[in-house]
Amino acid sequence: MKRKTYPIFISYRHSDTADKAEHLLSLLEAAGYKNRVSFDRENLDGRFDLEILRRLDTCTDFIIILGTETLAHINDEEIEFYRELATCEIELFPKHEEEFLAKKRLRRKASGKELQDADKHIDFVRLEIARAIAKGKNIIPVVPVNTDEYNFDEHSLPEDIHLLNKYQAVKYQDSKDFLFKDILDKILKRLKTPLPHPLIKVCIIALSVILFLLGAISLIKWNSEDALFHQLKTQSDFERFKEGSWFFGNQCADSIKLFNHLKGDGLASINDSEHTNGNDSIFVAWNPDCTLNQIRVLRQLINYMMFVPKGSFTMGTNRMEGYKNIPHDVTINSDFYIGKFEVSEREWNVVMNNSSTGSEDLPKAEISWDDCIEFINTLKVMTGLKFSMPTEEQWEYAASFPLDRVSLYAGGNDPDEVAVYNTNAPQKKGSKKPNEREIYNLSGNVAEWCYSDDPGKKPIRGGSYLSTADEVTITFSDKATGASKSIGMRLVLIK
After folding, report:
1. pLDDT digits (tens, 9 = 90+) for 230-259
2. How far apart are CA 360 and CA 256, in angstroms?
3. I want to staple 467 with a disulfide (CB 3.0 to 4.6 A). Which of 101, 323, 455, 471 is the partner?
């Protein structure tokens, strides 16, 4: 009787990825590949090992599903044996296998070590990979996403299978809540096996509709992201959520990840670490009343705080500009962080009104000094962090970097390169060059309120888009009495 052939072969290690392999099988069958996928749980006639090799030799597509431990314990000393098995005729396989296992037992005995289970069997996952490479199969590795603990692209493999991580991999989230439906389309595009039926498009559309309906059901059950977040405020709720006892199936992985990231340990990156490869972080004591939207916006705001080390400088100038700006030596006694950008319209609205209205690129204006104090106090309640307006000393010190070079403006001596001035409207953040601390719009755009212990003095620094070139210098100082369309603010954070 003629043996059935399977154009698609799924390889996996039972102890590591059996559940994922079975799930992928069901998805492939639903996509139109029923009875076209070899899976070692069914229809294995005679010696199962020989039947598996026959199926592998006759397949077109070889899908290997890896977990983080699948290849972790492969013996580098057995390269030649597996290379031999990868190319031998199937009829000769039992003889080669018996000889190899006998040699393993003798080596183990000679070393005085106890015989292990691994000495009694060959590693079939390794053999399947080596043979698929040797036979030139269309190899599709399905692997966990790269992390600090596991990196498939850099995985060191023995010579008989070292080509495996040279094949383009399809990467999944290694979690018990992961559903392979999220990567099914990528796998289907990589297959060389055609669908057997002319109604292929109908099948794919039907599968897509099913997946869409599952997603819709999930969304209905989840309600809104923000509502979900509030339901998960207690640890007990979160544990039930992780266990999959809430909502549809176990499709909660993304929300769990989001919950952990946004609120779980309270850590937020600082000093623009995502963009400058910094590794600094700060603990945020999130207020329970914070919404998910507020936490998102504030984490970004915190991330864009730039580090300014303590030090001394000469503040002011002999030039006839501004308000009480006589040169004098100043020492900044503590490190601090200052906003990379002015507070935006959206940041202000999210904090003050839990509203996502307003531009995230344009500075918030028409706010008074007292409005800024209220904003800062609200931030403190939300985060437990020491936010404030900068003092004039902190502001000018941050703007004056580097201290050994005299620049008229924050970033250089050409106002057209670094300052938004002499125009009729503010510009979006990043429209001009920053200073060398990577802080933008210290010169011009909107003037910035500064803190003073003197209730009668409410200083502003930097000038605005309405100012002349002389009024957007580092040393220009002025004061205002109330809100104006040309005055905004910048935050300072004391860690």
Report:
1. 544 444 444 444 444 433 333 344 444 444
2. 27
3. 471
